[in-house]
Design brief:
Chain lengths: 339, 559
């Protein structure tokens, strides 16, 4: 088990390395740059800006600087001045004080060209928690609706429960969030005034966005659960369990459902990574200060460090949740072994 | 009967309570919740020297004041931090006498109040000449890499060299003569230079706060400001809240703020509109898709306001590449565009069909009152005649022999619909069907600056309110913004002369002549419409209509 996890983590670094190179090369070869404007800036101004952000250095050097700032820890001496160019996720005071102050600094994802006063780390620190809360809430809703609905549909196959449940699920899958979100927003926010229309803060702000986001995935989970449970119910060991005289409840919850969740858990991993890093549509429609918007605006704005930061973070989360999914397999089905 | 005995005191209590609530409601701070001219996301900056989007500039305008100021309702220049100004005899040196009672202020979250900033000795810091000079120095310094410094650079002696890193600050002609007098010298006698010195990009900033806060100096914990509003909160990606600065002395031009708090929420127009319908925002942009609905709605149509925006939408031609290097052909294309139909059927936001480039309302720009017949209008007969002349000059017998032509545009907003309308008009009136090419915005803009497409969409908005910012800054033959490659010596001579002329009416006439060459005789570009802004404003807000595209919230009031 330990060996397995170590191997996977080593693999993770390989994956992140490859992704970082591909992303870096791709974004640098797209026409336009961070200082391309409708009202174009004079050559001289672009030169000054390129110098400021070291964009005039050879591309290879820029890549190494970028990666170096993330993985190499450094110790600086002197009083720290707030600067987006020197913003580290980990900053530990070591010794001394005032001008003699030594500080260990580690993990700097760089500035954002769009805003001088913020850094990519600021965006992670302030926006990621918001997306995380919304994403987890949406996932909870998806599971809380999806699994029972799918189970009910499978157990009462070809009854009114099955048709109703799967009908709802098909509706959920067919209506993209870009339609359901504004409709829910209009009804609950504008028309009935039950919840705030946009914004973020207390729980009431999160209800509608989390539901809009969760419902779509609930439908998906319900369909998967139903299909998988139906298959498991036909397995020999279920017949054995029933033959042993176990209560139907124990057969379903203890034996059938647990095994049937493997496909569900498989999609839950990437789904979790996608939800907690934010979703562009829901965040835009509900004015939520999350991460999702940055995945899109950083690319349209050619904000290189933000593109790299968001993609690396997403990749990192994907690798981690897939590792968790694999570990969950072993618990759900003890026959599965990786080492 | 027994019941009535406690009923009367209860009624009295209730009445008293209503009275108390009523009185306290009257004392409640006045506030306005509004949007900015931007889509959602975070506001890029509120640092005057870095600001380049209209949303940033709008916030900067409320919290930092410059030497001069542009009045939002008239677009005219008025005094800002300066109470008066002298101009030297040769018209090149401008001496500004500053108000002596404008303190730097900051918002204190502990007391929930704006307070004056003091120096090490406990004295109130007033905005002085040194602050103004230091502000201009920071704006022009190459290390600052200000994206907008290039606009004022030609109007300050020595600024170009200093900004490019070749010169020193000592040689820049910006001097503090005493604590409250600043002298700036321009290389040319340009009458509109004082309005340039008041641009946001040259405004004084608190250098001590910049020193302490570094890149983060614009956050509430560091920032000091000097305008009628102060920064109360900046919730990144959500909103900015400004609070009234009671220490702003209040002048005729820039009065003390009447509204205690202005909240700017960073939302897309659709979301602003939803909040407005829910009654939680007071002033919002109208999304393009909702304009018809707003006009048709009994209540909303009463709250609908169309404001001027100093921008011109136009079609650019590559004047240097065949066949668009032929003036008759360009003119044929321009005359074949039914501008009225575009604003009535496509944009529908009260835009004005543009007859020329420099939008009316800019200082010295021709207006539809002074020059109703100037420029280009929709004229299909003229378009056909010009096309015939063009074909003759090109030695072609029919339009089918023209090379395939492409109209390029950035795929955002409603450009696609406008381009389709223009494509159709050209097919109908000229028999020429161009291909439409939509491009991702950043790719599109970089392709224009490298080599302009043969026919393309473009727009230009004012940096400062003067026709020079359009006719000279964009289309002078040597301008870096001259993407169409328009080059006409007669035009150049006229805009050069207008730049150095001091009489506004003479200038207006010169620009009218230049425009006639630009859009009528030579058709270097085809102007389409002059922009407007479409707002919804709640009736309880007293709103002096802005003609500059920027709002002066210190002029607003709440009933």
């Amino acid at each position: 088990m330990g060996k397995f996890i170590t191997r996977r983590i080593l693999w993770m670094f390989m994956v992140l390395f490859v992704i970082s190179i591909i992303t870096f090369l791709l974004m640098r070869n797209v026409p336009g740059g961070p200082f391309t404007r409708e009202k174009k800036l004079p050559e001289a101004t672009i030169k000054l800006l390129n110098e400021k952000y070291n964009l005039d250095a050879p591309v290879i050097e820029q890549y190494l600087d970028y990666v170096g700032d993330i993985i190499v820890p450094r110790v600086v001496t002197g009083k720290l001045r707030p600067s987006s160019a020197e913003d580290y996720l980990i900053s530990i005071p070591l010794s001394g004080s005032g001008d003699e102050q030594k500080t260990l600094q580690w993990v700097n994802f760089g500035p954002t060209y769009k805003s001088r006063s913020r850094s990519v780390n600021d965006i992670f620190r302030e926006n990621l928690p918001v997306s995380f809360q919304l994403g987890v809430a949406a996932l909870m809703i998806a599971i809380a609706i999806g699994v029972p609905l799918g189970t009910l549909a499978a157990l009462k196959r070809n009854t009114i429960f099955d048709y109703m449940g799967m009908g709802t699920a098909i509706l959920g899958v067919s209506f993209p969030v870009i339609i359901t979100a504004p409709v829910l927003q209009y009804l609950f926010g504008v028309q009935w005034g039950l919840v705030p229309v946009t914004g973020w803060g207390s729980v009431e702000y999160a209800i509608i966005p989390a539901f809009a986001l969760g419902f779509l995935h609930a439908a998906l989970i319900a369909r998967l659960t139903r299909a998988s449970l139906l298959q498991v119910l036909n397995e020999d060991y279920i017949r054995t369990a029933r033959a042993k005289g176990l209560a139907e409840r124990t057969v379903i919850v203890g034996h059938a459902l647990k095994n049937s969740l493997i496909p569900v858990v498989t999609i839950l991993g990437p789904l979790l990574a996608a939800l907690v890093t934010g979703t562009f549509v829901v965040e835009t429609i509900f004015g939520i200060p999350g991460m999702g918007r940055y995945f899109v605006t950083s690319i349209t704005g050619r904000d290189y460090p933000v593109i790299m930061g968001t993609i690396l973070m997403y990749a990192f989360l994907l690798v981690i949740v897939n590792l968790l999914v694999d570990i969950a397999y072993m618990w759900l089905d003890p026959r599965i072994r990786f080492d | 009967m027994k019941r009535l005995r406690w009923f009367t005191p209860l009624l009295v209590c209730a009445l008293l309570l209503t009275l108390v609530i009523g009185v306290s409601a009257q004392d409640a701070p006045k506030s306005v919740v509004t949007g900015l001219h931007m889509v959602g996301g975070d506001l890029p900056t509120i640092d005057p020297h870095i600001a380049e989007t209209s949303a940033s500039i709008e916030v900067v305008n409320q919290i930092f004041i410059g030497l001069t100021n542009q009045d939002a309702t008239t677009a005219n220049m008025e005094m800002g931090l300066a109470e008066s100004m002298d101009v030297s005899e040769d018209g090149k040196t401008f001496t500004f006498h500053l108000m002596q009672n404008v303190p730097w202020v900051r918002y204190n979250p502990d007391t929930d109040a704006v307070e004056e900033v003091t120096d090490e000795n406990g004295n109130v810091r007033y905005v002085n000449a040194q602050d103004v000079v230091a502000g201009i120095q920071r704006a022009l310094a190459p290390e600052t890499a200000s994206p907008y410094a290039y606009v004022p650079v030609p109007y300050i002696v020595g600024a170009a060299e200093y900004n490019s890193g070749d010169g020193s600050w000592e040689d820049v002609a910006v001097k503090a003569l005493d604590d409250f007098t600043v002298e700036i010298t321009s290389p040319d006698a340009v009458s509109f230079a004082p309005s340039i010195y008041g641009l946001w990009v040259l405004r004084p900033v608190p250098t001590w706060a910049v020193e302490e806060g570094g890149d983060s100096w614009t956050e509430v914990e560091y920032i000091n400001t000097n305008g009628p509003y102060a920064l109360k909160e900046w919730a990144h990606d959500e909103s900015i809240t400004l609070i009234k600065n009671p220490f702003w002395p209040g002048t005729d031009a820039i009065p003390q703020a009447k509204i205690d708090e202005v909240v700017f929420r960073f939302l897309d127009p659709q979301q602003q509109f939803a909040e407005y319908l829910a009654g939680t925002m007071d002033a919002v942009q109208v999304p393009l898709e909702e304009i018809e609905r707003v006009k048709a709605d009994a209540t909303l149509s009463q709250e609908y306001v169309v404001g001027n925006q100093p921008c011109t939408y136009y079609i650019g031609f590559d004047n240097t590449e065949a066949p668009m290097d032929n003036a008759h052909l360009r003119l044929a294309f321009s005359a074949a565009i039914d501008r009225q139909s575009i604003v009535d059927n496509v944009t529908r936001g009260g835009q004005i069909p543009a007859q020329w480039f420099a939008r009316p309302g800019l200082t010295a720009a021709p207006t539809l009152e002074t020059h109703p017949d100037l420029g280009i209008k929709y004229d299909p007969e003229r378009a056909k005649a010009e096309l015939a002349l063009a074909l003759e000059e090109l030695g072609l017998s029919s339009v089918d022999e023209l090379p395939p032509l492409t109209l390029s545009y950035n795929d955002s907003s409603n450009h696609g619909a406008i381009m389709q309308a223009i494509q159709q008009m050209w097919t109908e009136n000229l028999g020429i069907t161009v291909t439409l090419t939509a491009m991702e915005p950043s790719t599109y803009f970089s392709s224009i600056s490298e080599d302009a497409p043969i026919i393309y969409r473009a727009g230009w908005c004012q940096d400062y309110s003067d026709a020079n910012n359009f006719d000279y800054d964009v289309l002078y033959s040597k301008s870096s913004q001259n993407d169409p490659g328009w080059n006409n010596p007669e035009y150049d001579a006229l805009v050069e002369q207008a730049r150095l002329e001091s009489d506004v009416e003479v200038r207006r006439e010169l620009y009218a002549q230049a425009e006639d060459i630009l859009v009528n005789q030579g058709a270097g570009i085809a102007p389409i419409y002059w922009y407007t802004i479409n707002f919804l404003i709640k009736p309880h807000i007293e709103y002096p209509p802005s003609v500059t595209g920027n709002e002066a919230y210190f002029e607003w009031d709440v009933q």
